Amino acid sequence: MAHATVYVGFTLPQLLRSASRIFPTHSALVVLRHSAFCYCTVNSTIKSKRKMDHLERTANNFRQEVISQAKVCGITNESETVKRLRLAVANKDFAFKAGQWVDFFIPGVPVVGGFSICSSPGLLEREGVLELAVKHTVHPPAYWIHTECTLDSEVALRVGGDFFFDPQPGDSPVELVLIAGGVGINPLFSILLHIADLHGYQEGKGNGYKMGTVKLYYSAKNTSELLFKKNILGLMNAFPGKITCRFHVTQQRSWICNELQPHVTEGRISEKDLEKHVSKDTLWYICGPPPMIESISKLLANIGVPSNCVFFEKWW
């Protein structure tokens, strides 16, 4: 596996000085070295009456030192329960890998949020923005996004996470299978967009990392809860044969539109769906509720997928 060295400096946003107890106040310059392909897990055997917050749950994960101010520059409804935020990032040194998340600091809200980035690193490089898709819950950061956040609201962000796809030009080509459940699509959509950027760069420049094919399996209760579906169909049309997707719905009660129908299966993702992708050059990325991840992981083990080729992140 290739490695990338990242140099980052630490800054403390003015708007969060009053909340300095949440994060360090000293200045530092650090050198971080991290694998290009990584995964994050949460021990599902740990029992607690109190649900761990984001900072506790991710205490052992990689985090950048830099904290960057950001301003909300776009808000749309991705679904009835999910808002999509576009954030302009002030710090030019701010960077992330496809699949990572951000610590989300809100002035006046003592709880720190944790949200997977759903846009590509390329969008940040080109336009200085990133996107988050956040489901409505009573958790204070998510509740603030759905009830108080407006255009020009100011927040602060810090990148973290060990679950990402960041191939380097000299790496061997791989095939990817991405498996998402519900809002677990967020980091996998970031990876999918990054793969589209890699394909586009390869077609335009003729060099760089030579990406293999990617297959996305995305499961939700019904088609109204399938986030980014129009974007995903657009990627399939832009890169035929290179990017493909199968949507799975488990509680569909309404008619499925003509555009989606050819790509929708009613029922859960099965062993039969996945066994056709087993090869020594395939990597598997999974994100969704812990029971789903445990079920898919067992299924992959049953069909002979080595555990070191399966990367996953449990968030809920």
In short:
22% of the residues lie in helices and 32% in strands. It has 316 residues and is of the alpha/beta class. The protein has a 6-stranded antiparallel beta sheet with strand order 7-6-9-4-5-8.
Verbal overview:
The protein is an alpha/beta fold. The chain has seven helices and 16 strands. The strands form four sheets. The protein has a six-stranded antiparallel β-sheet with strand order 7-6-9-4-5-8. A six-stranded parallel β-sheet has the order 14-13-12-11-15-16, with helices on both faces. It has a two-stranded antiparallel sheet with strand order 1-2. The longest helix has 21 residues, at 185-205. The radius of gyration is 19 Å and the shape is globular. Pfam families: NAD_binding_1 (PF00175).
Task: Map the helices and strands.
Layout lengths: L2 E7 L19 E7 L1 E2 L15 H4 L10 E10 L4 E8 L11 E6 L2 E8 L4 H7 L1 E7 L4 H8 L6 E7 L3 E2 L9 E7 L3 H21 L8 E7 L8 H10 L4 E7 L14 E3 L4 H5 L6 E7 L1 H13 L7 E5 L2
Spatial strand order of the main sheet: 7-6-9-4-5-8
List the secondary-structure elements in sequence, H or E.
EEEHEEEEHEHEEEHEHEEHEHE
| Contiguous runs where pLDDT drops below 50 for at least 5 residues | 1-48
Enumerate how many helices there are, as a single number: 7
Number of self-contained structural domains: 2
Shape: globular
- The CATH class of the largest domain is identified as Alpha Beta
Percent in helix? 10-25%
Please state the CA-atom Rg, rounded to the nearest Å. 19 Å
Strand content bin? 25-35%
Helix/strand structural class: alpha/beta
CATH superfamily of the largest domain: Nucleotide-binding domain of ferredoxin-NADP reductase (FNR) module
CATH topology call of the largest domain: Rossmann fold
Largest sheet: 6 strands, antiparallel
